């Protein structure tokens, strides 16, 4: 007689899709071909770990091997309970032990490794699945020879389509929408496609707004890791693109920022990003939608505070925070042309051999071949002015060509698009202008946000700290492009329009105002919140180039201002103490080039610096400060006075200690080719290793 349990198991089997590579690997482990006795599966909530274990159990059953399940959520946190659950496995020759939700069994990790697994039969296979990466104990002491990691990522688009079809979603448009929204999460796809939640309209745009769907996602993705005292930091992380200690301290002054940051850092649904951490995209969207639904005023207040914090830091010289300000804008017309949302699936790159011909082919395919002739000379004569967007498979998905009056190559002045625009910018004092000749999205999908990345690319590659003007090439045939220009407040300059092979390009001039792009971004966020514009600061004017070297700080002789800023010193005593303690500690330890380069890359990421072998101190902040102090003090005494030595020092400063907005910009500033710049950057890092390796007091 068929049972309810059998029906559930059969339904689960029919709904399983994808994971071919992971299952092939696990089946080889079952057959003893991989020499692995323990497989450590890890990935964020909702990524399909439990589903994968159940499918492995079915395949093992077909081979005549019995699976012994242990569910971490249901197990009492005592060794005896686990020993009892696996008593039967010890009596078999080839047991398959499947331990799920391992993050709930943290207190038993040592017992599992030191007692449970060693007591199982030699031909046993243990598969442990959890949200967190395996602890260090699984990667040393001999375990590295029998234990392997198996990280799970999201489903591919084809697998996601198959899963939605299994759940009854047949409409092509809605399928594409749900695939984009779910970010590869099998759980989100299953929930959105489940008739119990309403097949029609489960997700609109890229927002998760239906309360029942939001609550289901939160319950399944993160509820076990969310509690009352941390709802404030979670709300900040749901709104901000990147959450840092400084952001939490300023936005939530009543909260212990360091403690809140460390709590967020330990969640399975967060990951390092830039100078801080970010929520897994699906969790972020669900939490943000829930916050809006439950407490819209709280969400508005937090968004304003975050905008103020980012604006102040960006004005102080951290230009790339324009990306984070753009993240707070909700206007869809603006986000179409200026945001960084597509960076999860795409990346900016420089021109490579073969790109020119491929872009020429794509322009013809997308019926804009007239854009090729004006752009073609730059691929040979000024490739640094071109940015290419590639997807995860390395395919070209878009490109842009932009200049400023400061970096425009000679050929730009004869350019049929840019020539007159540059003359207009110079005539009207537009030294702080960014001018695009072309920005083409080859995806045809506005939700991919490639067009938005192309807009952001021109800004971050411009070398301007806070642009005042933008000259936009708008094809009047593209409704979204016109809507973007109008929503941004740009005005058309008909006298600067041009025709390319009979196709018009309209010139739209966007004046960001006296407070520049950064002020315009904050003002837009304020308007969306229904607030009066904030007063701009009295100091500084928009449109100036990125600040270079600042005067040496008082009381810090021998340490350059960039080094002092990287070290985070607030006074001569604090700086000297940190430098002295870190340097003497490092002198007694072996220093590797990889350690130094990793620390240089992460100078602005406190939790990564704190994990560095170079770090000293007790708290996260102390350890991060010790690494900054060590590297900046070492840089101050590592180079000589010859021109070549000073160039090495400047390369190190603009690459890491006082970084330009990109390595490309740093190379431009220093008049170096990309290859020469990176050669010197490596040499400078090696010099730091050499100095650090000397005994204390040695020369």
Structure description:
This protein is of the alpha/beta class and 699 residues long. The chain has 4 domains: 4-151, P-loop containing nucleotide triphosphate hydrolases (Rossmann fold); 157-206, no CATH class; 339-510, Gcn5-related N-acetyltransferase (GNAT) (Aminopeptidase), CATH 3.40.630.30; 561-693, no CATH class. The protein is built from 30 helices and 15 strands. Strand 14 (498-500) and strand 15 (503-511) form a beta hairpin. Helix 11 crosses helix 12 (257-265) and helix 28 packs across helix 30 (674-693). The longest helix has 20 residues, at 296-315. It is globular and about 85 Å long. The N and C termini lie far apart (85 Å). Residues 535-547, 557-571 have a biased composition (Low complexity).
Quick rundown:
It contains 30 helices and 15 strands. Residues 535-571 are annotated as: Disordered. Residues 35-171 form the AAA+ ATPase domain.
What characteristics describe this protein?
single chain; 699 residues; alpha/beta; Rossmann fold; Aminopeptidase; 4 domains; 8-stranded mixed β-sheet; 5-stranded parallel β-sheet; 30 helices; 15 strands; globular; AAA_16; AAA+ ATPase domain-containing protein; AAA+_ATPase
The fraction of residues in strands falls at: 5-15%
Number of domains: 4
Stretches with pLDDT under 50, minimum 5 residues: 195-208, 546-589
Structural class: alpha/beta
Q: Which term fits the overall shape?
A: globular
Count of helical stretches:
30
CATH class term of the largest domain: Alpha Beta
> Could you give a short account of the major beta sheet?
8 strands, mixed
């Amino acid at each position: 007689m068929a049972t309810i349990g059998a029906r559930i198991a059969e339904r689960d089997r029919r709904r399983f899709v994808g994971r071919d590579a992971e299952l092939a690997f696990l089946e080889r482990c079952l057959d003893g071909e991989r020499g692995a006795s323990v497989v450590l599966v890890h990935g964020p909530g909702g990524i399909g770990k439990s589903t994968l274990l159940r499918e492995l159990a079915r395949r093992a059953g077909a081979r005549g091997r019995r699976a012994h399940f242990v569910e971490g959520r249901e197990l009492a946190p005592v060794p005896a309970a686990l020993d009892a659950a696996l008593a039967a496995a010890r009596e078999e020759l080839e047991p398959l032990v499947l331990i799920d939700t391992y993050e709930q069994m943290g207190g038993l990790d040592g017992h599992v490794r030191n007692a449970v697994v060693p007591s199982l039969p030699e031909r046993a296979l243990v598969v442990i699945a959890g949200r967190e990466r395996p602890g260090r104990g699984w990667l040393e002491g001999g375990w590295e020879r029998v234990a392997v990691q198996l990280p799970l990522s999201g489903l591919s688009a084809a697998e996601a389509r198959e899963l939605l079809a299994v759940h009854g979603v047949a409409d092509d448009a809605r399928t594409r929408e749900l695939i984009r929204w779910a970010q590869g999460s099998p759980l989100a796809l299953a929930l959105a496609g489940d008739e119990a939640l309403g097949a029609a309209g489960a997700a609109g745009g890229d927002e998760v707004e239906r309360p029942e769907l939001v609550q289901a996602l939160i319950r399944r993705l993160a509820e076990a890791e969310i509690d009352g005292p941390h709802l404030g930091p979670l709300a900040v992380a749901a709104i901000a693109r990147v959450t840092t200690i400084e952001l939490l301290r300023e936005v939530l002054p009543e909260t212990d920022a360091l403690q809140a940051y460390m709590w967020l850092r330990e969640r399975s649904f967060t990951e390092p990003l830039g100078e801080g951490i970010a929520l897994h995209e699906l969790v972020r969207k669900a939490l943000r939608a829930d916050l809006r639904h439950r407490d819209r005023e709280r969400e508005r207040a937090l968004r304003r505070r975050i905008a103020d914090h980012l604006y102040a830091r960006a004005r102080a010289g951290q230009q790339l925070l324009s990306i984070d300000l753009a993240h707070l804008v909700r206007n869809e017309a603006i986000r179409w042309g200026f945001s960084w949302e597509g960076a999860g699936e795409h990346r900016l790159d420089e021109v490579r051999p073969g790109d020119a011909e491929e872009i020429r082919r794509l322009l013809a395919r997308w019926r804009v071949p007239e854009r090729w002739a004006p752009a073609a000379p730059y691929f040979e004569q000024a490739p640094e002015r071109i940015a290419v967007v590639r997807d995860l498979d390395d395919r070209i998905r878009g490109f842009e060509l932009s200049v400023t009056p400061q970096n425009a190559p000679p050929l730009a002045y004869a350019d049929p698009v840019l020539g007159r625009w540059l003359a207009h910018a110079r005539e009207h004092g537009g030294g702080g202008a960014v001018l695009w000749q072309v920005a083409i999205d080859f995806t045809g999908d506005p939700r991919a946000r490639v067009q938005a990345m192309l807009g952001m690319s021109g800004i971050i590659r411009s070398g301007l700290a806070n642009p005042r003007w933008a000259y936009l090439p708008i094809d009047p045939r593209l409704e979204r492009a016109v809507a973007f220009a109008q929503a941004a407040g740009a005005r058309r300059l008909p006298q600067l329009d041009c025709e390319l092979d009979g196709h018009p390009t309209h010139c739209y001039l966007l004046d960001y105002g006296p407070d520049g792009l950064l002020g315009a971004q904050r003002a837009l966020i304020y308007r969306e919140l229904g607030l009066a514009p904030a007063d701009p600061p009295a100091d500084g004017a928009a449109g100036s180039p990125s600040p270079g070297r600042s005067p040496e700080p008082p009381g810090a002789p021998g340490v350059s201002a960039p080094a002092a800023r990287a070290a985070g010193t607030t006074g001569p005593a604090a700086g000297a103490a940190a430098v002295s303690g870190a340097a003497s500690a490092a002198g007694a330890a072996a220093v590797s080039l990889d350690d130094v380069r990793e620390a240089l890359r992460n100078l602005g990421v406190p939790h990564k610096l704190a994990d560095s072998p170079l770090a000293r101190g007790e708290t996260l902040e102390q350890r991060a400060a010790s690494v900054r102090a060590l590297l900046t003090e070492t840089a101050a005494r590592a180079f000589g006075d010859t021109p070549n030595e000073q160039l090495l020092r400047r390369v190190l400063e603009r690459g890491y200690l006082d970084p330009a907005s990109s390595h490309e910009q740093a190379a431009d500033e220093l008049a170096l080719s990309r290859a020469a710049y990176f050669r010197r950057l490596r040499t400078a890092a090696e010099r730091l290793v050499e100095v650090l390796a000397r005994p204390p007091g040695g020369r």
